[in-house]
Each structure stands twice: as structure tokens, then as C-alpha cells.
Amino acid sequence: MKLLEERIKKDGIVLPGNVLKVDSFLNHQIDPELSKAMGEEFARLFGDAGIDRVLTVEASGIAIGVMTALTLHVPLVFARKKKSALINEPVYTHRVFSYTKKEYADILVLQKFLPAGENVLIIDDFLANGEAALGLAKLVEEAGSKVAGIGIAIEKAFQPGHQRLLDKGYHLEALASIASLEGGTIRFTAED
Ligand code: 5GP
Q1: Which of these, 188, 181, 129, lies nearest to 13 by C-alpha position?
Q2: Record-annotated residues binding 5-phospho-alpha-D-ribose 1-diphosphate (predicted)?
């Protein structure tokens, strides 16, 4: 997606450890117009899949997730990373390792917000090792639903997550696909 690539080129900052910082439009400050365009693009890419629900994980997936869900006219549910005192109903949960925080978190969703027998579209901001996306997919499958697709705003295609998701047979779409961050230079893959 040209608009996203251009924004990454303009505002993205490469940090040590192959981390791309995009806090001026995706991870802290949010650009609503760009989020809307990303949501519409996800809705176009997965529009034929009969999506019943969008699932993401807090916090950075929520803006793009809600724009996708709005365009598809379906609900958005986000997995929480911390159990709150208000959660006293049955949950689906899975332990995932955070790429940026370097620690485990138990992501969870109330079972009533992931009914069985649905086509669920997973949306997230980044794909690195695939931990977050695979953890969300586990929740969907445990609920007795189908992962209809995985939409990622920015994938780092040189890291293992891309291949791990394809190996599991998931339909993966990334709006921006980064081939390398070597030397602090952002290079996109040739496909788009
Ligand atoms: P994975 O679970 O695929 O290893 O990593 C994806 C998750 O880690 C995303 O939800 C995102 O929060 C975070 N992440 C991974 N790589 C990056 C990165 O380069 N930049 C930012 N801002 N977040 C990242």
C-alpha cells in the first residue's frame, strides 16, 4: 500500500534489534485518515472471505482493527494483555512472547466475544516472529471458529513470522512488507 510505505519512509525510525518505530502515526499518536485507509484496504483484501468478526490485540491493533470492522460492518474484539478485576467470566487465553517488551503475556478474550462457528479476521500492527498472530489464531481455533485471514499493517518479511503463518496455511496479507532494515535503511520487498 503506497500511502503506508510513503509514511513509513517519511516518519519511520529504525532502532537497534530490527525494530521500526512508527509512533507518530500507528503506535502512539494515531493518524485517523491513514488508519481509515488501512482498514478499507484490509476490508477490500478480505472482503470475499465472509468475515463475521475482526480480532486484534491491544493497543496498537485497535485503531486499524476498528476501521476494518467498520468497513466490513462486523464487530471488533481485542485481546487484552492483562486480566482486569472486571473479567470474571470464562476466557480463552494463550501465552505469547512480546517482541518489543521481551516478556511473556497471557492474552485473553472473553469466550462470549468469540462465539463458535465464525470466520474471524485477525488484524495486527506488526509481524515479526509471528507470536502475536499465532496466539490470536489459537484463541480463534480454541473457540471453534476459523481464521479467515491475517492482515498485518507492517510485516518484517525477513523475520520468521511471515513463513510461519504461511506454513500453517493462513491467508496472510501485509499492507507494507519490509525486506530489510539493515544499516538503518528501510527497504520494501519488490512485490508492491
Ligand atoms: P511478533 O509477535 O510477530 O514477534 O511481533 C509482533 C508484535 O510485536 C506486534 O504486535 C508489535 O506490537 C510488536 N512488534 C514487533 N516488531 C515490531 C517493530 O519493528 N516495531 C514495533 N513498533 N512493534 C513491533
Answers
A1: 181
A2: 128-132
pLDDT tens profile 90-125: 999 999 999 999 999 999 999 999 999 999 999 999
Q: How many CA atoms lie within 13 A of 178 on its CB side?
A: 27
Best residue among 100, 154, 178 to mutate for probing ligand 1's pocket (most ligand atoms within 8 Å of CB) is 100
Q: 163 CB less than 6 Å from ligand 1?
A: no
Q: What is the ipTM of this complex?
A: 0.99
Ligand 1 pocket test: pick from 8, 11, 21, 99 the residue with the most ligand atoms within 8 Å of its Cβ. Answer: 99
User: In order of start, what are the domains of the chain with their CATH numbers?
Assistant: 2-188 (3.40.50.2020)
Q: What is the pTM of this model?
A: 0.97
